[in-house]
Design brief:
By secondary structure, this protein is an all-alpha fold. Helix content is about 90%, strand content about 0%. This is CCD27 protein.
Length: about 200
């Protein structure tokens, strides 16, 4: 945007210079026409004089001045063409910069939209993770209660000894398996004796 503003200022300066050159050109053309009219008037005036040599000298001087004015006008026209070319180039550059600004703006909008979608997905994942954490805590709590019940049932059997300390899951399973085996053997023994 700064570059575009700078280019627009340059273009305004060049257009001002162009207007100045055009004004100077019009002024010079006006002067040229006036000189030509003066030359014609002097030619008409001196045509009746007998001093032909003096008349020719004056005419030559006027023609020289006219040639000089023509050269100045030609130079002004050349400068005018250069200024017009420069202004066109500046306009093209400004159009390119404005197109780049529009494209950059569109890219920024797309990035903001993508960022918004990613933030929404991140929020959804965070919410899902929180729900999973809560569910895991519930399952862990239920598992601990179930484990404690197993330990209590396993070591509250008559004849069993209290655990020496914190039990691992494998130790709890082994103790349960031992009780199950003992009860299975006891049931088998009762069946063999004919007892219900």
């Amino acid at each position: 945007t700064g570059t575009i503003s700078s280019l627009q200022r340059q273009m305004e300066i060049q257009e001002s210079e162009l207007r100045r050159i055009r004004s100077e050109k019009e002024l010079l053309q006006k002067q040229l026409r006036e000189r030509e009219m003066q030359l014609q008037a002097m030619s008409d005036k001196f045509s009746s004089l007998t001093q032909e040599q003096r008349q020719e000298e004056i005419v030559l001087v006027m023609e020289e001045e006219n040639r000089n004015l023509h050269q100045v006008v030609t130079k002004q026209e050349s400068q005018l063409a250069e200024q017009s070319k420069l202004i066109n180039e500046l306009k093209t550059t400004i159009n390119q910069r404005q197109a780049e600004v529009v494209n950059t703006h569109l890219q920024l909008l797309e990035q903001k939209q993508t960022q918004k979608e990613m933030q929404s997905q991140a929020d959804a994942l965070q919410h899902e993770a929180l729900q999973t954490k809560v569910a895991l805590e519930r399952i862990t709590c239920k598992f601990e209660r179930f484990r404690n019940k197993i330990i209590q049932a396993t070591f509250s059997v008559e004849g069993s000894q209290d655990p020496p300390g914190e039990l691992t899951d494998n130790e709890v399973l082994e103790a349960m398996q031992k009780i199950i085996n003992e009860r299975t053997e006891f049931q088998q023994l009762l069946k063999n004796k004919g007892s219900k």
